[in-house]
Amino acid sequence: MSSVAFEAINWNRPTSELAQVFWDQQWKQIWFPEEVAVSKDIKQWQSFEHQDTYKKVFGGLTLLDTLQTNVGMNEISRHVTDLQEKAVLTVFGSFEAIHAKSYSYIFTTLCKNDEIDEVFKWVQENEFLQYKAKKITDIYESIEAGDDASLWKAMFASVMLESFLFYSGFFYPLYLGGQGTLRNSAEVISLILRDESIHGVAIGFFAQQLFAKLPQQKQEELTVWGYELLLDLYQNEMKYTEDVYAGTNVADDVKVYVRYNANKALMNIGLEPMFPEEEVNPIVMNGIANTGSTYDFFSQKGATYAVAKVAPITDATFDFSDKGLK
Amino acid sequence: MKPYVKLNNDVLQRYRATGDIARHVDEEALQQYLQHEIAPRYRTYTTPVERLNALVEEGYYERDFLMQYTPEFIASLYEQAKGYNFQFETFMSASKFFDSYAMKSRDDAEILEMYEDRYIVLALYLAQGDEQLAKAAIDALFTAYQPATPTTLNSGKQARGELVSCFKLSMDDTMNSIAKNIGYCLELSRLGGGVGVNLTDLRPLGDPIKHIDNRASGVMPVAKLLENSFSYSNQLGQRNGSGVVYLNIFHRDIENFISSKKPNADEKIRLATLSTGVVIPSVFFELMKRDEDIALFSPYDIYREYGKRMSELSITDMYDELLNNDNIRKLKYINARKLYTDIKKAQFESGYPFEIFDDNVNDAHALKGIGRVKMSNLCTEILQYMETSVITDETEENEYGVDVSCNLGSIDIHAATKHAHFEQLVDTSMRLLTAVSTMTTIKNVPSIVKGNHAMHAVGLGAMNLHGHLVANGIRYGSEDAIAFTDVFMEAMNYYSLKSSMRIAKERGETFDQFEKSTYASGEYFEQYINKEMPQLNDAVKQAIGSIPVITADMWQQLKSDVQQHGLFHAYRLAVAPTGSISYIRSCTASIAPITEQVEVRDYADSRTIYPMPFLTAENAHMYEEAYTIDAYKLIDMYAAAQKHVDQGISMTLYVTDQWTTEQLARVYIYAWMKGIKSVYYVRQRLIAIEECVACQV
Predict the structure, then answer these.
(1) Does residue B489 or residue B101 have the better pLDDT?
(2) Which of B107, B141, B193 minimizes the C-alpha distance to B428?
(3) Picking from A134-143, B323-332, B539-548, which range would have the lowest pLDDT averaged per residue?
(4) What's the pLDDT at B264?
(5) Which residues of A are annotated as a binding site?
(6) Which of A203, B343, B429, B529 places its Cα 20 to 30 Å from the Cα of B610?
(7) A206: nearest CA in chain B?
(8) How many domains does chain B contain in total?
(9) B377 catalytic residue (yes or no)
(10) Looking at CA atoms only, how far is residue B697 from chain A in angstroms?
(11) Complex confidence, ipTM
(12) Pick from B240, B658, B662: which is nearest to A312 by CB?
């Protein structure tokens, strides 16, 4: 007979500040890739000049989301002690799975099978991509039970992934979509972004709570570790960008965008930004803003419908005496 | 990357960062675009007439309409047009025009039309050789009148789609009718139209076929067939076909119908691209108010018992009879409040279904002595009576009923208030719409030909209301705004009636069965000849500008003129949503509030940034966005306009994710009580994570 009593999750008593908020927000924005008519991009795709770059960008993103589903969210959620936070992280993990699948949906729609196989082979062979995957995975897998510092490190790595490393890839569809090229694929990306930005904020927030409980010496040590990791990943990311975007002349713009997002990631986790402020290409910035763009009823699905809050109709619903109606 | 795209995007970035509306940056984007993208591609000629001749020779323009005019007259129209000195005001306007409206060479390399070229061809084409009308058309088109997209886009071109955009069909409860109507949908969709189909008369899932129970598949599979037809037939790939299906809320299949648009609906019934609308009789609201159950019926029973289709009856009048008649099955009872909550839920999650308030529509219907309005169209502003065709076997003649095609146009309210002759402006607009109606024959859909021929229906609407109000320092939804809308729309109604009467007199022809209408009986005019003159304050007077305020005496005179000469058009007014077409003219859309001060507009092929017309740093504080405007005030605005509009007004409601289904239901109920005829989309702004968490973290 075990002496440990199993505890049931009780949403009635908030145990984590904001867990409910993150939960609600994530479910409100549920979506499925099949709702976006990517097939409308096929015609443009056939004459698109930089198919190779585009495919690699999506290959890279697929790998990162796969990691985040299979390792990241699972490991972090396993070690987080708060039951509500665990639940939120599990939900996030499901969305990561939708993301990873949605890249395949785009691939399947635009590319032939042998092309797709080739991209997945490239993913396995690209040294920079493999480097960041390994770096992050190692941190995820080194969480020790009961050790808050190692858990914080994993959260830090997760925020780096979601708020920083993804963006060298997100850049391209947003940049093209903003100029009217492959707009529907860009719409899928903007839906993914909408989720990743909650994940970044939420995990950053949980990490900050954890951080605050650590002794000051540990905090300083972790801060140094964090900046070192970021710098390491950053240098790799610059090389990755050069490699993937070779031949497109947007690599410099991508780098600016990567630095901008590195700063955002640091702010999510509660640390000072590291890179000087630069002007990001406005086309890409407009693609990332999370408010709904105006919906053209004859075009794509709008990215702005969400789950309803149900409340019953009562007698009071029909009382318009305040509006001067009987 | 194209530098003007970057500049245009810069406008939004600056606005987000500093709240500053960088018009000069957008202006620079516009200039760069015109200089580097458009000018080098524009094919030039020495004179306009030479240009027209060359383009006729190459098969770009039709020859016949140009032959109706002398070269001298055409040249003089170009001079006249030049006098209006048209300039694009924003990058958005120019890029939309050149992307979507200007004629290009077949290889897409050359631009063959500037703005003036397109609108002059439009005037020449629609005036059909009438020089006086052509001149008046130039004046109207270059000041305040804008025909709908299909007319603007297609007029005068050799390779073109139809001039009308909007159709309504009624489907009957027979396989012949279903098959025929699917064929019509393919045909109309090929021509670029949006098609509304009434499904209310189809027997529901599980109904008998040839008296054998449980055989019918219901309305959803038919809706799926329609959806696939619209996707397939897409106007040379230019625009995806679009359609909407309507169902009465008392129809047995209503529950499946409502869930069909939800993203997580069963794939068998899920409608991805077809729009849906529900027809709601007042008795539904009464039952809901009393918290009662409603009975769901089968049109099959109704037809067998009464010899009438379900959509041909007023369910409000017949509800008790249907309940008490044992030959009418009560297929299911469902709580009205619960059903309506489900509808609100679906609207939050998908924007659908649209709603048509059946009795508000039919009580105000001037042709109620002729027939019922059963449904609406794709944008919920067309509300016309229809008669179901009887489609027989191939060996027999079909009995064609009356279906609907409607051509639309809009008056720019701001420009209209500055126009010296509002009466003439409305008259010209009506004549140009009439031309479209008489020039159109949708030969493969006989019921539409018949309807068009009998009704000459048109739909004149308005746009730029919000822009105009702000330009005059009036807030959308305020008492002054409501007063202005009331006076303006009344003048539109008056002058469109007067124009229709005059055209009937000139042609010696009225619409079919005019004598049975409330125009002929005079009942229609009661609300006006007994009215009191509104007391208007200075702000409203200033906003009204040169538009005459119509008096009871004027109405009295018009009443007797109409009774004497009749009306040419069975339907005259309808306010469409006007998307891109208003942007070309730098107008705010329809009579709707703006949704964002600086808008990001996604089309299938581009993303552009559009600062709203008249927006300045000084008036930004009063240029309220739709999501922050009190929904009840918005409805008051539409109700003020609706009183004067014989058909409908496309009204979108705006909610945020903070709303509950109950709050949304309440707004709809209010709209129904205020006499609103139809509600178009529910649009939701999801409050972004930055907004909802940033204030807490």
Answers:
(1) B489
(2) B141
(3) A134-143
(4) 63
(5) 65, 96, 99, 162, 196, 199
(6) B429
(7) B697
(8) 1
(9) yes
(10) 8
(11) 0.88
(12) B662
Mean pLDDT estimate for chain B = 92
| pLDDT > 60? residue B605 | no
CA B517 to chain A, closest CA, distance in angstroms equals 31
Q: Is the pLDDT of residue B423 over 70?
A: yes
Q: How many CA atoms lie within 13 A of B585 on its CB side?
A: 30
Distance to chain B for A234, nearest Cα, Å: 25
A 75-134 → B contacts, CB under 8 A: none
Q: How many CB atoms lie within 10 A of CB B42?
A: 15
Say what angle helices B71-82 and B115-127 make with each other, to 10 degrees. Answer: 130
Range scoring the smallest mean pLDDT among A210-214, B258-262, B384-388, B651-655: B258-262
Residue ranges of the binding site of A for Fe cation: 65, 96, 99, 162, 196, 199
Is B200 among the domain residues? yes
Residues in chain A closer than 8 A to B350 (CB atoms): 305
Structural domains of chain A, with CATH: 19-323 (1.10.620.20)
pTM of the model: 0.84
**Contact indicator for B559, B367 with CB cutoff of 8 Å:** no
The region, left, alpha or beta by phi > 0 then psi within -120 to 50, assigned to residue A146 is: left
In a domain, B440, yes or no: no
Contact B670/A at CB under 8 A: yes
- CB burial of residue B324 (10 Å; 0-12, 13-18, 19+): exposed
Chain A, residues 298-317, CB within 8 A of chain B, namely: 298-300, 302, 304-315, 317
Asked if B657 and A309 come within 8 Å (Cβ–Cβ), the reply is yes
Q: Is A290 on the interface with B (CB under 8 A)?
A: yes
Distance CA B88, CA B82 (A): 14
> Which residues on A lie below 8 Å from B662 (Cβ)?
311-314, 317
Provide CB contacts within 8 A for B243, sequence distance 6+: B185, B189, B194, B195, B196, B197, B226, B227, B229, B230, B274, B275, B378
pLDDT of B538 > 90? The answer is yes
CATH code for the domain in which residue B267 is found: 3.20.70.20
pLDDT tens, residue by residue, B6-44: 888 888 888 888 888 888 899 999 999 999 999 999 999
Q: Quick check: B236 contacting A, CB < 8 Å?
A: no
Nearest Cβ partner for B692 among A25, A294, A315: A25
User: Would you say residue B280 lies in a domain?
Assistant: yes
pLDDT at B239: 55
CB contact under 8 A, B686 and A179: no
Model pLDDT for residues A58-82, shown as the tens digit of each residue = 999 988 888 888 788 888 888 988 8
Pairwise CB contact (< 8 Å): B689 & A197: yes
Q: What is the pLDDT of residues A167-199, one digit of tens each?
A: 999 999 999 988 888 888 888 898 888 888 888
CA distance B675 to chain A (A): 12
Taking one residue from A and the other from B, the number of pairs with CB-CB distance under 8 angstroms is 186
Hey, CA dihedral for B226, B232, B234, B238, is it positive or negative? positive
Condensed to tens digits (0 to 9), the pLDDT of residues A250-299 reads 999 999 999 999 998 999 899 999 999 888 888 888 765 544 444 333 33
> What domain range includes position B224?
166-354
In the residue annotation, B379 being an active-site residue is answered as: yes
pLDDT value at residue A299: 32
B337 band by pLDDT with thresholds 50, 70 and 90: very high
Q: Give the residue among A168, A286, A13, A215 at the shortest CA–CA distance from B610.
A: A286
Q: Return the structure tokens found at A173.
A: 């569809």
- For residues B582 and B464, give the distance between their C-alpha atoms in angstroms, rounded to a whole number: 8
In a domain, B596, yes or no: no
Please tell me if residue A179 touches chain B, with a CB cutoff of 8 Å: yes
Tokens of A30: 């549920």
Judge whether residue B636 has pLDDT over 60.
Answer: yes
Exposed/middle/buried for B605, CB within 10 Å: 0-12, 13-18, 19+? Answer: middle
